[in-house]
């Protein structure tokens, strides 16, 4: 009992020992309260002693006062300490009975279950890349007239290039004209040029349609096109933009590109672009390495007839355009093998290839990070 | 377009290797789709000479042969071919060779106890033909041990290129050679065609008769060659035609096919004896028929152009000849036709009749008009060479059109459009080698395109010619920085909403689908669509016939498909276009979703802490609110009315609106609609028209309004009301809120009860009201006073009484 300070008064010392052992013996807070009452209560043993001080002589009180008060203080201290000990023990005993099986599963967060379709994700990736280069996003109707889908784009009537488009038609209207489902997003370029004065920098993502259906073609698919019109934009700029795009999109240090002359009615010169890839690993394709080529897009300088058809003077302004399949580049980047699965809404496919709602593509965080 | 390397070398003296030529073809715009090199495939097969051939001791039909391949000891081979005999030169394959027809690797084996160390091959085993009567018999002078492919002239690789629609001139080998020569890979060999002197007037006339309709035939030339002996064409010609996949027929027909692929000059030959009277080029009469060379009978109409004699249609102009007047072994006098046709008309006729001939393919892309007569002469030379005979003079109806036109070509245009630095000499050289006539000098050249380049319209086309031949790799990638303006949003309000709605819905556990923009007519009608102007004329399938009026039919179908695969609890959404009409302004952007089974926002199916119940209208309502809130819609002010469209359950659905602007619906899908779509529920849905959400007012600053924090504790009071069952909870909340808009800062329903203990036509609605004092703590009297006003106001607006 180190905190028990004995006095010169054997009676006080005995009392203190007695109370102290009662405190230590108390098993719970109720028992401790009983000890307190018997010692410090109105008629408690210590209280009685304190009351006796009043009847003492000053000399006697000088000696006994501090002794009795000291006794009371020490008892109070012991009690407080015991109370803390008992409280902690009681809490521990309660907690010991409160046990759950923490291995029971919890409900998955909705944000872990929900998915964003790969086409949407890739469209946002494209937007992030081109927004950084100063492009805005233009959209237009899926149901188009012949002028915007073909004529303005320099497709002569009856030309074989028109036939290559496998167009879906709607019934002839009152004027005898048949609307079409746009076969590419190029009509959005036409609408943009008609509505806006150069300089123009837009990308046009959207749904497109061709009546064709097999292993690698679906009657509906997605394209993104880009359009730049100003006073000096030339093929070299187009090359740079496409190189920047490929590096950013495929998230590689560098990627070799091969530009091959081609033909589109709406561009002149026209080109198709192949990118460097490695197909030596079965079922996998890597970009920016290897010795193989893969065609990914078509592009060219906007044909002077197209500029004229949209009310732009081809001797004053010039520019370029490109187009590619969103579904296709999504497949290339993320490794889906079957285009048709994009539109089957099989939740197993969507959960596997889709993106979590909080995975926003940003340039700051890495597009697919 | 296919051709062989040796064929190309008829027109090009190469200065580059075969591999360089193949690589460059793609880089100048003649994309190589494939190279087939039989010599490489057949490299292991060599010429063997059968030295001895004895009957197999254990088999009547087999022989044991010894074969020499010119080196080493003779090899013993067991062979079953009836023609295996001593002295025969044939094809030998050593063990380890993969047999092309079967793909199996040859091994040393024992056939009926006699060892066989290789194989003597039939043409079928080599993948060369269907011939399998016996092993290949090679000429006696075939050198033993030499590669078989060489002996058979198969060491001529076949190149297949994709020719773009503008480059009709490269649908002939001579045109391909010209491009390669311009690109510096060799010398073009283009000897002038020597004119043929006809020795007599052609014994038939031709007239172009189009009356007052537009002519479909600018020029038609013919010549007769009398006294030909038609038979198989020479081996070199047969080899070429076979190499590109054509079947040799007879010399006369083979010459026309050769001219088609060699010079892009389709011709037609027919038997003079089978022609009755003179020829007329005219529109077909509706109902006229022609038995064509493909063995099919076509019914024609006035949009189509034909060549006819006095009996009727002889051939379908520029597309296919007639069977009746075709040339065969008995042909003695042949008519050779070289004509020009209207390309668009050829394309339309071919499409309408479904004929894809080599002639149609070329005429609709445009052939060289100036080569009409030289082509006729060249074909005549070939026929005279192969079949003999005597040529007539040429008959020409119409006139060869003059295509000459001059393009003013500023040299600076090359750099302006392409960024490529090219010297005047380079530019001139490219154009001249491609056949352009170049005159004038810096800074503007006068350029006349050659007659075979109908695709060249203006200076941009000339830039393309220069750049593609000099090489696109020479165009330097040039940085194209964004302009110096401040960054602005690149998305419109609608595009932003589309994105936000998508992320908000996915965050609620819905999975985004992309479904077809077209649905079945029945589905379109069930969801308020089905207008005739939105029905496709040529749908790809009967159930994908109409442009969708709503995203729901596609999503509901997808949900059922998932359920059929064993995934019954699915939550799907789509953000995409729906169609109200066929005008450019009739398209709307919709964000819609469905939940099926127990696909609740908090999780689906059974769970130890409590199973998920069936989805209900409030799940769909919560989804709609989440998406609307993400899109910035004023959700606190939205009105909810019980008037959703017909495809929803009439009693368990609602519309979200601001006054007359209804922009979202939610609820259970109508059971009859589910039944019509052959789908089972429970299934709830929502649709939001993103275009209709009012745009928030533009803000002058991004600073948020100052935050006001009250120092005083809010007070909460509960009220339980008894009201009629038909009373809307929203009306009770609105009444309570309206008592003091400043003081009452929150109202919510915390209990709803119908049933035992209250009258059948009543319900109990318990609400909690939050009062937020701002200047001082409310006294009990003040609180009681507000509570009294709330009870009175709710009673007044809804007939509610406070529950005892």
Shape of chain A: rod-shaped
Which class best fits the helix and strand makeup of chain A? alpha+beta
Q: Largest contact between protein chains?
A: A-B, 96 and 101 residues
In oligomeric terms, what are we looking at? Answer: heterodimer
Based on CA inertia axes, which overall geometry of chain B fits? elongated
GO biological process, one term (chain B): phenylalanyl-tRNA aminoacylation
Domain B5 (chain B): 402-477
Pfam families (chain B): B3_4, B5, FDX-ACB, tRNA_bind, tRNA_synthFbeta
EC number (chain B): 6.1.1.20
Please, could you describe this protein's structure?
Chain A is an alpha+beta fold. Chain A is 41% helix and 20% strand. In chain A, the strands form 2 sheets. In chain A, strands 1, 5, 6, 7, 8, 9, 10 and 11 form an 8-stranded mixed sheet that branches. A 3-stranded antiparallel sheet of chain A has the order 2-4-3. In chain A, a hairpin with a 2-residue loop joins strand 7 and strand 8 (267-278). The longest helix of chain A is centred in the first third of the chain and has 40 residues, at 58-97. The two termini of chain A are 66 Å apart. The mean pLDDT of chain A is 90. Chain B folds into 6 domains: 2-37 and 157-188, Phenylalanyl-tRNA Synthetase, Chain B, domain 1 (2-Layer Sandwich); 40-151, Beta Barrel (OB fold (Dihydrolipoamide Acetyltransferase, E2P)), CATH 2.40.50; 206-398, Phenylalanyl-tRNA Synthetase, Chain B, domain 3 (3-Layer(bba) Sandwich), CATH 3.50.40; 407-474, Phenylalanyl-tRNA Synthetase, Chain B, domain 1 (2-Layer Sandwich); 493-692, 2-Layer Sandwich (BirA Bifunctional Protein, domain 2), CATH 3.30.930; 715-802, Alpha-Beta Plaits (2-Layer Sandwich). In chain B, strand 5 (63-68) and strand 6 (75-79) form a beta hairpin. The mean pLDDT of chain B is 92. Chains A and B meet through helix 5, helix 6, strand 1, strand 2 and helix 8 of A and helix 8, helix 11, helix 13, helix 14 and strand 28 of B.
């Amino acid at each position: 009992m180190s905190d028990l300070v004995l006095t010169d008064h054997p009676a006080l010392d005995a009392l203190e020992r007695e109370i102290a052992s009662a405190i230590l013996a108390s098993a719970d807070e109720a028992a401790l309260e009983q000890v307190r009452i018997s010692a410090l209560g109105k008629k408690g043993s210590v209280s009685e002693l304190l009351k006796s001080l009043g009847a003492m002589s000053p000399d006697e009180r000088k000696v006994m006062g501090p002794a009795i008060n000291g006794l009371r203080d020490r008892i109070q201290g012991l009690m407080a300490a015991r109370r803390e000990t008992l409280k902690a023990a009681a809490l521990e005993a309660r907690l010991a009975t409160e046990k759950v099986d923490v291995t029971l599963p919890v409900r998955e967060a909705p944000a872990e279950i929900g998915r964003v379709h790969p086409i949407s994700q890739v469209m946002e990736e494209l937007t992030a890349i081109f927004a950084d280069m100063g492009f805005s996003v233009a959209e237009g109707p899926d149901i188009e007239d012949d002028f915007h889908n073909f004529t303005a784009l320099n497709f002569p009537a009856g030309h074989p290039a028109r036939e290559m488009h496998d167009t879906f038609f709607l019934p002839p209207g009152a004027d005898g004209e048949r609307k079409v489902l746009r076969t590419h997003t190029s009509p959005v370029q036409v609408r943009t040029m008609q509505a806006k004065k150069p300089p123009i920098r837009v990308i046009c993502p959207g749904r497109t349609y061709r009546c064709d259906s097999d292993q690698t073609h679906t009657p509906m698919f997605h394209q993104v096109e880009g359009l730049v019109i100003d006073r000096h934009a030339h093929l070299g700029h187009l090359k740079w933009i496409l190189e920047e795009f490929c590096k950013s999109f495929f998230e590689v240090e560098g990627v070799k590109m091969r530009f091959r002359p081609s033909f589109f009615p709406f561009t002149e010169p026209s080109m198709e672009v192949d990118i460097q890839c490695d197909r030596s690993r079965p079922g996998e394709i890597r970009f920016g390495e290897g010795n193989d080529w893969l065609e990914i897009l078509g592009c060219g300088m906007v044909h002077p007839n197209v500029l004229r058809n949209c009310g732009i003077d081809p001797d004053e302004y010039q520019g370029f355009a490109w187009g590619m399949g969103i579904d296709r580049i999504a497949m290339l980047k993320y490794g889906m093998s079957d285009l048709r699965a994009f539109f089957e809404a099989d939740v197993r496919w969507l959960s596997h290839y889709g993106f979590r709602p909080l995975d926003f593509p940003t340039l700051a965080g890495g597009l697919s990070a | 377009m296919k051709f062989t390397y040796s064929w190309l070398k008829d027109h090009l003296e190469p200065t580059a290797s075969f591999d360089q030529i193949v690589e460059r073809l793609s880089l100048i715009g003649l994309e190589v789709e494939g190279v087939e090199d039989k010599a490489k495939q057949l490299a292991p097969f060599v010429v063997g000479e059968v030295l001895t051939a004895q009957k197999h001791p254990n088999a009547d039909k087999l022989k044991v042969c010894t074969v020499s391949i010119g080196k080493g000891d003779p090899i013993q081979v067991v062979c079953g071919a009836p023609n295996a005999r001593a002295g025969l030169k044939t094809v030998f394959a050593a063990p380890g060779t993969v047999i092309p027809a079967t793909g199996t690797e040859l091994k040393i084996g024992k056939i009926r106890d006699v060892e066989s160390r290789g194989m003597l091959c039939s043409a079928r085993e080599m993948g060369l033909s269907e011939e399998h009567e016996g092993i290949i018999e090679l000429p006696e002078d075939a050198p033993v041990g030499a590669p078989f492919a060489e002996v058979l002239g198969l060491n001529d690789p076949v190149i297949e290129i994709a020719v773009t629609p503008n480059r009709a001139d490269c649908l002939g080998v001579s045109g391909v050679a010209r491009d390669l020569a311009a690109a510096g890979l060799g010398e073009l060999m283009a000897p002038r065609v020597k004119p043929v002197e006809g020795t007599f007037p052609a014994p038939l006339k031709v007239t172009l008769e189009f009356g007052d309709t537009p002519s479909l035939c600018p020029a038609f030339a013919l010549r007769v060659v009398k006294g030909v002996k038609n038979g198989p064409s020479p081996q070199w010609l047969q080899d070429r035609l076979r190499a590109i996949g054509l079947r040799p027929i007879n010399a006369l027909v083979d010459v026309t096919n050769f001219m088609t692929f060699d010079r892009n000059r389709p011709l037609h030959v027919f038997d003079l004896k089978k022609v009755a009277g003179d020829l007329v080029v005219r529109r077909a009469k509706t109902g006229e028929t022609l038995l064509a060379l493909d063995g099919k009978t076509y019914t024609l109409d006035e949009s189509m152009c034909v060549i006819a004699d006095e009996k009727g249609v002889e051939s379908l102009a520029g597309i296919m000849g007639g069977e009746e007047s075709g040339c065969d072994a008995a042909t003695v006098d042949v008519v050779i036709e070289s004509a020009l046709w209207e390309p668009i008309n050829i394309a339309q006729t071919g499409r309408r009749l479904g004929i894809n001939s080599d002639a149609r393919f070329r005429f609709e892309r445009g052939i060289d008009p100036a080569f009409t007569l030289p082509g006729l002469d060249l074909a005549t030379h070939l026929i005279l060479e192969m079949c003999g005979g005597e040529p007539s003079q040429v008959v020409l109806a119409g006139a060869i059109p003059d295509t000459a036109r001059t393009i003013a070509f500023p040299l600076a245009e090359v750099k302006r459009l392409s960024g490529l630095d090219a010297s005047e000499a380079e530019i001139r050289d490219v154009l001249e080698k491609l056949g352009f006539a170049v005159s004038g000098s810096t800074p503007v050249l006068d350029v006349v395109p050659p007659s075979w380049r109908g695709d060249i319209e203006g200076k941009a086309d000339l830039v393309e010619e220069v750049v593609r031949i000099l090489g696109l790799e020479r165009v330097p990638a040039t940085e194209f920085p964004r302009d110096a303006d401040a960054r602005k949003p690149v998305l419109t309000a609608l595009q932003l909403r589309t994105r936000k709605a998508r992320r908000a819905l996915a965050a609620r556990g819905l999975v985004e689908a992309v479904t077809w923009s077209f649905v079945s007519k029945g589905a379109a009608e069930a969801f308020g669509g089905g207008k005739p102007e939105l029905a496709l004329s040529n749908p790809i399938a009967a159930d994908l016939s109409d442009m969708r009026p709503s995203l729901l039919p596609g999503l509901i179908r997808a949900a059922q498909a998932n359920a059929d695969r064993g995934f019954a609890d699915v939550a799907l959404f789509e953000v995409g276009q729906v169609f109200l009409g066929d005008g450019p302004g009739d398209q709307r952007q919709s964000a819609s979703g469905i939940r099926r089974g127990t696909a609740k926002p908090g999780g689906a199916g059974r769970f130890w802490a409590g199973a998920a119940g069936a989805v209900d209208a409030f799940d769909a309502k919560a989804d709609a609110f989440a998406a609307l809130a993400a899109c910035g819609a004023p959700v606190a002010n939205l009105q909810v009315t019980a008037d959703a469209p017909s495809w929803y359950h009439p009693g368990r659905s609602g519309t979200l609106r601001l006054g007359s602007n209804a922009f979202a619906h939610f609820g259970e899908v109508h059971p009859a609609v589910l039944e019509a779509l052959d789908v089972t529920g429970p299934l709830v849905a929502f649709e939001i028209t993103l275009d209709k959400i009012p745009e928030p007012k533009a803000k002058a600053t991004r600073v948020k309004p100052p935050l006001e924090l009250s120092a005083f504790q809010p007070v909460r009071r509960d009220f339980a009301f008894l009201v009629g069952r038909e009373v809307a909870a929203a009306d009770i909340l609105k009444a309570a809120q309206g008592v003091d808009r400043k003081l009452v800062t929150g109202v919510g329903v915390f209990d709803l009860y119908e049933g035992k203990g209250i009258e059948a036509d009543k319900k109990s609605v318990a609400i909690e009201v939050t009062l937020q004092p701002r200047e001082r703590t409310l006294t009990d009297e003040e609180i009681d006073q507000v509570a009294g006003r709330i009870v009175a106001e709710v009673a007044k607006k809804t007939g509610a009484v406070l529950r005892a």
